Amino acid sequence: MCGIFAYTGSKGSEAPDILLKGLISLEYRGYDSAGIFTPESGAVKTPGAVAELKKKIPKGFGGKSGIAHLRWATHGEPTEVNAHPHSDSTGEIWVVHNGIIENFKELKKKLEASGHRFVSDTDTEILAHLVEEHLKAEQNFEKAAIAALNDVRGTYGIALQYKGEPDKLIAARMGSPIVIGLGDGEHFIASDPSPILPHTKSVVFLEDGDVAVLTPEKHTIYKLDATKVKRDPTEIDWSAEEAQKSGYEHFMLKEIMEGPEVVENTLRGRLRADGGAKLGGLEFVAKELGQIERILITACGTAYYGGLVGEYMLEEFAGIPVEVELASEFRYRSPVLNQKTALIAISQSGETADTLEAIREGKRKGALTLGIVNAVGSTIARETDAGVYNHAGPEVSVASTKALVSQLTALALFTLFLGRQRALSPQKAAEIAAELRALPAKIQKVLDDREKIAVVAKKYAQARDFLFIGRKYNFPIALEGALKLKEVSYIHAEGYGAGEMKHGPIAMIDENFPSVAIATKNSVYDKMLSNIEQLKARKGPVIAIATEGDAEIAKTADDCIYVPPTIEMLEPILNVVPLQLFAYYFAKEKGYNVDRPRNLAKSVTVE
Ligand code: F6R
Fold first, then answer.
1. Is the separation of the CB atoms in 31 and 2 below 8 Å?
2. Is 374 in the pocket of ligand 1 (CB under 6 A)?
3. Where are the alpha helices (DSSP H) in 176-317?
4. Is any atom of ligand 1 closer than 6 Å to the C-beta of 303?
5. CATH 3.40.50.10490, the chain: domain bounds
6. What is the DSSP letter of 207?
7. Looking at ligand 1, which atom is closest to the CA of residue 301?
8. Which fold would CATH assign to domain 3-241?
9. Does the annotation count 602 as an active-site position?
């Protein structure tokens, strides 16, 4: 995810040095380009790392204040011209931005009509031009910034600077975190506290709709209606590493905790009022998609399990035959594909070698290739004909968690998109859309209860084996629950379709072999209850993932982890979260390196 750092102080010409050091402490977020601006020396930007940026900065580059950014591309390739900071047409106003401006296309059209010229493909550049436009009318930087922010829709965390008032910085937040550092004769703006901590422990976390105006000596916070508001400072005693993890002990936990935000970011601007989905990346292949007769989904690991859930969604609600295949199998056999087949690759990194080769094979055979990819500009994103970006932000922990939550959300959107092209009724689509919107709050409820999951994980931490079972939409989630536990805890865990249990695996069950049963209230609930009874009859301990308020299941299962109710199609998005937490706490209890499990790599770029 992009990183912001800005500084204003009265210490001679030190701003570039302070800003570059700050960018280095934000590097952990993952990025593809970097840039810096000071009113005295102008802007320097580059694709690549902060080390590249340093090389490009000319001798004598100085300033008492400035803004800096690490970009993780969302709109436009990671090039020098798309790197932040971006300026208005006069080169007087400069901005760095995290988030997505949803109405940037319509704003850009209007501004172009009144003579503005844009140089980048980004949504961010619009912000500088809007401030320029309002500055003409307002003749006041603060008022112009607030007016510009009232024009935009979407998410932002920003830092703004105007050459006319070089020691002043403006920060604003809407959906993308911004923290202000309060120093002695200096102020800072950052997307998380890590670059601020070496300078001061006293910070103010902005709330959505806050606009902060900073000079070296003082800070004032306004709301978007220009009224002043007071925010109390917080003293934080995190280490730099803790700050990168937002105070969580591990990236894995931080990323699981990002679930609600991830769903919001994947959905943002993509649900139509009529229940359909607006997927910009698919618009230009919408006609071909309307004519496809079959979908093949290919992926590896966790992303493959996401694909299996997609099969249930797409067949039930879009009425299209779907097959899902491991990319490592697909590429080595002779799959039958043609122009009426859409081949979808799901990949967090967009670089997984097997998935990439599967897509290349699909292309050779004439299929329409699509990507559901998190990493913008990655090879799979570039080589597919069209696609949907996840917007989940970079995943640092090796075990994939938030990426799956986002992949499932994207698949639900894709189902709405294809479903509305076919037989899905507007009423049913609207019902699904409403449930999608309700998911972030429901995930938050599961997360708020995480200590209970930690207790259950601790209770079973001595087990050597685990069975995970589920049916229908929750069958792939059982597979994922087992994979997560294997990866981070090095415990033997098997995922099974619950109905398949009696065809073999039940032979393993005894009092030392616990099972996790996903048994939420849905169309196969009664069947799951019978499966739990079968396990109990063999003395197998059972942890049930159950729907809130289900007292019945608590009579049979040894432990229950409750989740709020949702429609069956979306249950996987909710039910996977307690399984991720279970694996996390289990591994933590064992004292393993949760974020870097042995033998695993984050991006599998070899066969
Ligand atoms: C599991 C995990 C892996 C990845 C798989 C695909 O936690 O991280 O199973 O899901 O290697 O990676 P991407 O999605 O990058 O193609």
1. yes
2. no
3. 240-244, 251-257, 259-267, 286-291, 301-317
4. yes
5. 244-445, 449-593
6. P
7. 9
8. Glutamine Phosphoribosylpyrophosphate, subunit 1, domain 1 (3.60.20)
9. yes
| Nearest Cα residue to 20 out of 42, 11, 12, 55 | 55
Rounded to two decimals, the pTM is: 0.78
Dihedral angle at the C-alpha atoms of 511, 515, 520, 526, nearest 10 degrees? -60
The dihedrals phi and psi of 20, each to the nearest 5 degrees, come to -65, -40
For the chain, the first-to-last Cα distance in angstroms comes to: 28
Taking the domain 244-445, which CATH number applies? 3.40.50.10490
pLDDT score recorded for residue 246: 82
Q: H or E stretch including 457?
A: helix 450-459
Q: For each successive 10 residues of the chain (607 residues), what is the average pLDDT?
A: 89 89 84 93 94 95 96 83 95 94 92 95 95 95 97 93 97 90 96 89 92 97 97 82 82 96 93 90 94 97 98 98 96 89 95 92 95 85 93 87 98 97 95 97 98 98 97 98 97 97 94 98 97 97 98 96 98 98 97 88 66
Architecture of domain 449-593: 3-Layer(aba) Sandwich (3.40)
Q: Where do you find CATH 3.60.20.10 in the chain?
A: 3-241
2 given a catalytic annotation: yes
How far is CA 454 from each of CA 208, 449, 450, 460, 581, rounded to the nearest angstrom? 31, 9, 6, 10, 8
Looking at residue 320, what is its pLDDT? Answer: 97
Q: What is the 3-state secondary structure (H, E, C) of 67-102?
A: EEEEECCCCCCCCCCCCCCEECCCCCEEEEEECCEC
Phi-psi region of 407 (alpha: psi -120 to 50; beta: other; left: phi over 0): alpha
> SS3 letters for 518-555?
ECCCCCCHHHHHHHHHHHHHCCCCEEEEEECCCHHHHC
Q: Is residue 326 lining ligand 1, measured as CB closer than 6 Å? A: no
What tokens does 566 get?
A: 């949702």
Structure tokens at 453: 């999951």
Ligand 1 pocket mutation, candidates 251, 256, 298, 302, criterion most atoms within 8 A of CB: 302
